[in-house]
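Run log // design_07
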């Protein structure tokens, strides 16, 4: 089992055979005193559990491990999803020279030294070099630039791992030279299976202790899809049980070992939906303290922080809306921070956003407006787009009358002109009904003037001499 959570089937022969010493720059083989997660690493790609979408025959991941095609790959996924496991498999699967380095400690000089050695070996007919760079997002632009030529001409096959979105953290030229493989957090069923195997496997706990069902549930919840976390907690709990001469790890022992209380929070059951529902309703009801309680409850129970952030982005438009337009920016920034920073630090940003959303004035006018508009569309109300609004840029469009008569609002000093935008059937229909709350109060005042100006209401004899709506005079720039 590697630190990223992909699990091998039992292979007791591996325990009886001393591993060869590592090549220069390669991984050190696990020993009997290595962490449980390290001892349980897989011996082959077929022994992995998880990332099924990447394991199909002929898939890039299989080609990478077997060396069928010397393609460079960037592995993107959260902690515990399998990135380091795949690197270990690549290191041992073929006779390729394998060099591992971490962006936390390596620099341009180190990268160039590997590339120079790889180039000399290539020219002399030696083995191909695979360069594994962990945490590649921590490399500066200059450090990433130093890889480009060697990746381009395949002097080295790059295998890079990152927990950050590579579209933001990896320079475009390097990204374009690599295949991007996205790894997902392991499912609860997969984590549960891996825990059970670690208990029974000779490389793991070898059946020396039993794992009670409630304790197992607690470890699965705690992991949140990160098997490294689950196995580390299991190892700590097993040590605690052994110290107390207990043959079984119960939930109390598991709690004590990892210092996190077990919560009744089944991510697929009623408690999950109850807590999420209470979280949303507390923010809607402006009870900031209750909202923070339910946020903490989800975080401690191991809920996916991205799920929480997504619900907050939805809430910002559904329940706060135009009463505080900045709420959506805050929620969206929090969602980005979850991806960019990750837990545990991102819990601060989530709390920041929850406080903003819960204390903001509330309006569901945007929700109601799109609901009414979609109901009309589904009912068949609408009709053709007015001719003056149609695209008039292609050949023959003017002959059809498309775009003729369109009035450009920016030509008016007020930025608003009298003009029909909706289909004929919907003239005069109001979907958006602003509330007299927060920032939406000012929107409500301006909206009436805008509607009168656009619809030309209040004009004498059908319109002013210059074609402007008299209502436009009410609209300030």
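design_07 sequence
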């Amino acid at each position: 089992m590697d630190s990223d959570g992909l699990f091998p089937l039992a292979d007791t022969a591996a325990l009886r055979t001393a591993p060869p010493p590592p090549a220069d720059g390669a991984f050190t083989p696990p020993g009997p005193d290595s962490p449980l997660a390290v001892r349980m690493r897989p011996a082959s790609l077929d022994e992995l559990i998880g990332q099924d979408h990447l394991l199909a025959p002929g898939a890039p991941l299989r080609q990478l491990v077997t060396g069928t095609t010397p393609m460079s790959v960037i592995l993107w996924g959260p902690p515990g999803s399998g990135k380091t496991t795949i690197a270990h498999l690549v290191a041992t699967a073929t006779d390729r020279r394998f060099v591992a380095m971490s962006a936390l400690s390596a620099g341009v000089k180190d990268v160039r030294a590997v590339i120079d050695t790889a180039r000399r070996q290539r020219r002399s007919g030696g083995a191909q070099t695979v360069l594994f760079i962990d945490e590649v997002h921590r490399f500066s632009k200059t450090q990433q630039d130093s890889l480009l030529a060697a990746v381009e001409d395949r002097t080295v096959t790059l295998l890079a791992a990152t927990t950050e979105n590579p579209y933001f953290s990896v320079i475009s030229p390097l990204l374009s030279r690599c295949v991007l493989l996205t790894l997902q957090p392991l499912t609860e069923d997969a984590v549960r299976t891996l825990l059970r195997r670690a208990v029974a496997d000779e490389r793991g706990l070898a059946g020396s202790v039993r794992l009670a069902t409630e304790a197992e549930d607690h470890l699965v919840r705690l992991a949140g899809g990160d098997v490294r976390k689950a196995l580390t907690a299991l190892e700590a709990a097993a040590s605690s049980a052994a110290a107390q001469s207990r043959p079984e790890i119960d939930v109390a022992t598991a709690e004590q070992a990892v210092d996190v209380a077990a919560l009744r929070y089944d991510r697929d059951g009623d408690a999950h939906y109850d807590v999420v529902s209470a979280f949303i309703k507390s923010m809607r009801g402006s009870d900031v303290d209750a909202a923070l309680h339910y946020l903490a409850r989800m975080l401690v129970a191991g809920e996916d922080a991205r799920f929480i952030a997504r619900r907050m982005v939805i809430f910002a438009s559904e329940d706060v809306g135009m009463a505080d337009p900045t709420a959506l920016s805050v929620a969206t920034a929090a969602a980005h921070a979850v991806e960019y920073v990750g837990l545990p630090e991102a819990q601060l940003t989530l709390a920041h956003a929850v406080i903003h959303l819960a204390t903001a004035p509330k309006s569901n006018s945007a929700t109601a407006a799109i609901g009414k508009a979609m109901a009309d569309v589904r009912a068949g109300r609408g009709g053709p787009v007015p001719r003056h609004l149609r695209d008039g840029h292609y050949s023959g469009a003017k002959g059809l009358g498309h775009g003729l008569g369109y009035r450009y609002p920016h030509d008016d000093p007020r930025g608003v002109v009298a003009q029909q935008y909706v289909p004929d059937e919907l003239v005069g229909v109001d979907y958006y009904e602003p509330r007299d709350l927060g920032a939406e109060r000012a929107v409500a005042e301006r909206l009436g003037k805008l509607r009168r100006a656009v619809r030309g209401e209040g004009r004498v004899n059908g319109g002013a001499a210059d074609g402007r709506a008299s209502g436009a005079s009410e609209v300030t720039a």
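Residues 227-243 form the longest helix (17 residues).
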